[in-house]
Amino acid sequence: MSSVEQLFAQNPVFAALPPAKRECLIRDASVRSYRKGEVITHLGDDWPYLFIIAEGSVSALKKSLEGRSLVVATFVRGDIFWGLAFFHQDMPMPVALEAVEPTTIHLWSGERIHPLFKEEGRMSWELARLMILRMARASQILEEMAFQPVASRLAKLIMETSQKGRQDAISRSLTLDEMAARIGSTREVVCRFLHRFADDGIIDITRTEYRITDLERLAGISQSSKG
Fold first, then answer.
1. CATH code assigned to 3-146
2. Antiparallel, parallel or unpaired: β 49-55 and 80-82
3. What span, in angstroms and rounded, lies between the C-alpha atoms of 102 and 62?
4. Architecture of domain 148-222
5. Has residue 167 got a pLDDT over 60?
6. Most buried of 5, 53, 139, 172 (most Cβ within 10 A)?
């Protein structure tokens, strides 16, 4: 079995297909590659497609009129995503999709793949289950944005990017702007809180890396509802 076939077989939605139909679907896919930072589709586009990520990762972005960005979600190899117009004609994209790194996707139009969802009940069931998980995650994001202060969201991000609190040196792979986009803030606020954490002895930070020096306090901040 090729790596692409394994990728599809491991995804619950596509794994629900009989092998012959899955192989046919793989052959019919449009394979598209994107450079880091390249836009796959813009906010507001009529985009009736579904895709699976074969390599790389994709961020779903919201942007304000002032130019601030919020990373709503990031999808990685093996994840699938669809535009609203895939199910409802003329419904615009609620987010922009952007390649986080060099990325390859396998993509189908709604017209091509709709018959499979109608024929294969288990495939539709697995997609419905995935939708529920995405809705639950969206609800969690809204709750965090509404009720958790910036310090808590930043502490949580640091723990996530350091593999759940690993305390050896961690490369600063995200820029201040990228960190701000992930927690719904600005680079200035992120910078201020990073230095506050450092001054309080919670992290040790340099231009290229950081180290969690007080995991217990950082975890406490990540769960706090007070600024």
1. 2.60.120.10
2. antiparallel
3. 21
4. Orthogonal Bundle (1.10)
5. no
6. 53
Q: What is the 3-state secondary structure (H, E, C) of the chain?
A: CCHHHHHHHHCHHHHCCCHHHHHHHHHHCEEEEECCCCEEECCCCECCEEEEEEECEEEEEEECCCCCEEEEEEEECCCEEECHHHCCCCCECCCEEEECCCEEEEEEEHHHHHHHHHHCHHHHHHHHHHHHHHHHHHHHHHHHHHHCCHHHHHHHHHHHHCCCCCCCCEECCCCHHHHHHHHCCCHHHHHHHHHHHHHCCCEEECCCEEEECCHHHHHHHHCCCCC
**Domain extent listing, the chain:** 3-146, 148-222
Per-residue pLDDT tens digits for 113-136:
999 999 999 999 999 999 999 999
Q: Which long-range contacts (CB under 8 A, 24 or more apart) does 179-185 make?
A: 179/154, 180/68, 180/69, 181/61, 181/68, 181/69, 181/70, 181/71, 182/70, 182/71, 182/157, 183/150, 183/153, 183/154, 183/157, 184/70, 184/145, 184/153, 185/150, 185/153, 185/154
Task: Assign 63 a pLDDT band (cuts: 50, 70, 90).
Answer: confident
Tell me if 67 sits within 8 A of 80, measured CB to CB. no
Question: Counting beta carbons within 10 angstroms of the beta carbon of residue 186, is it exposed (0 to 12), middle (13 to 18) or buried (19 or more)?
Answer: middle
Residue entry with tokens 């230095």: 195
Task: Read off the tokens for 120.
Answer: 């294969």
Q: Do domains 3-146 and 148-222 have the same CATH topology?
A: no
